[in-house]
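CHAIN AND CONFORMATION:

***
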Amino acid sequence: MAIVKVVEVIASSEKGVDDAIRSAVAEVSKTIRNIDSVFVKDIKAHVKDGKITSFGVICKISFRVE
């Protein structure tokens, strides 16, 4: 039987939502192995002077415990 743990992380990017998700996975993978999936819990955009300046995501990253 596999044991799966989940960590919740927040990431942002000036490029877009896709880049923010990739940044979250890249950062978590520095310390956690066996990442299986990412669930995007929430997406938001930061606005300044009527323009979007960055995108933020809250992700749940699942990984198998050895």
Remarks:
- The two ends are 11 Å apart (CA to CA).
- The chain has a mean pLDDT of 97.
